[in-house]
């Protein structure tokens, strides 16, 4: 009986220690680096010299490698798959109000919590219809005109550049972004619990 109590006490101590470590890490400001280029996105968290890959994780990368190996067997299947990746621009254009409202609500909740040291984003719009490309370019420019001033007035950003352009000879849209920021993970979790659903809905609407 005494030995069992000792074992239970040790296990309980280990669990409590793990909980304390997790709580400490959640409250320490962590750096986040996110980089994306037309369908490829990677996100890393930094605690000092330690880097923790958040996306894609090892399981996701392994599945991706297996998928790519299978795709090489058929050029036609590879083409169909590549058409499903990346930014999906709807035929009726962008809902500027929905995008701006959702993003501003999300970022407003991060005021005094999020520090942005670097933000660079660029989108080059291309469709198989020149008229539609022009409409989408105007909407993207309007969206930049709403969000960028909001970011300037809300966050102290030293290095940032956001632009929207169009390639009327291209039949697909290309984009790229780099974000370096820092936040306490516990704060990010709270904000995601409040705004995760509308942000995910927006993601599913425009990314496939």
Segments where pLDDT lies below 50 for 5+ residues? 78-85
Whole-angstrom Rg = 22 Å
Report the average pLDDT across residues: 82
Largest sheet at a glance? Answer: 6 strands, mixed
* Lateral strand order in the biggest sheet: 3-2-1-6-4-5
Structural class: alpha+beta
- Please, how many helices? 6
Query: What string, H for helix and E for strand, traces the elements in order?
Result: HEEEHHHEHEEH
Q: What shape does the CA trace take? A: elongated
The total count of strands amounts to 6
Strand content: 15-25%
Helix content: 40-55%
Through-space gap between termini: 58 Å
Overview of the molecule:
- The protein is of the alpha+beta class and 208 residues long.
- Helix content is 53%, strand content 25%.
- It contains 6 helices and 6 strands, in the order αβββαααβαββα.
- It has helices at 2-27, 58-71, 75-84, 96-108, 130-154, 185-206; strands spanning 30-37, 40-47, 50-55, 115-125, 159-166, 174-183.
- It has a 6-stranded mixed sheet with strand order 3-2-1-6-4-5.
- Strand 1 and strand 2 (40-47) form a beta hairpin.
- The chain is elongated, with a radius of gyration of 22 Å.
- Residues 78-85 have low confidence and may be disordered.
């Amino acid at each position: 009986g005494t030995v069992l109590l000792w074992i239970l006490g040790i296990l309980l101590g280990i669990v409590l220690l793990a909980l304390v470590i997790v709580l400490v890490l959640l409250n320490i400001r962590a750096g986040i680096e996110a980089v994306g280029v037309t369908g490829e996105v990677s996100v890393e968290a930094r605690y000092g010299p330690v880097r923790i890959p958040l996306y894609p994780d090892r399981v996701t990368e392994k599945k991706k490698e297996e998928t790519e190996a299978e795709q090489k067997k058929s050029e036609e299947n590879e083409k169909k798959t590549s058409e499903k990746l990346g930014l999906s621009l709807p035929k009726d254009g962008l809902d500027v109000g929905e995008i701006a409202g959702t993003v501003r609500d999300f970022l407003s909740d991060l005021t005094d919590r999020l520090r942005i040291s670097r933000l660079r984003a660029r989108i080059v719009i291309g469709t198989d219809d020149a008229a539609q490309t022009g409409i989408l370019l105007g909407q993207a420019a309007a969206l930049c005109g709403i969000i960028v001033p909001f970011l300037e007035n809300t966050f102290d950003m030293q290095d940032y550049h956001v632009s929207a352009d169009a390639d009327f000879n291209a039949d697909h849209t290309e984009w790229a972004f780099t974000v370096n920021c820092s936040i306490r993970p516990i704060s990010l979790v709270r904000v995601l619990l409040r705004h995760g659903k509308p942000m995910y809905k927006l993601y599913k609407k425009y990314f496939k």
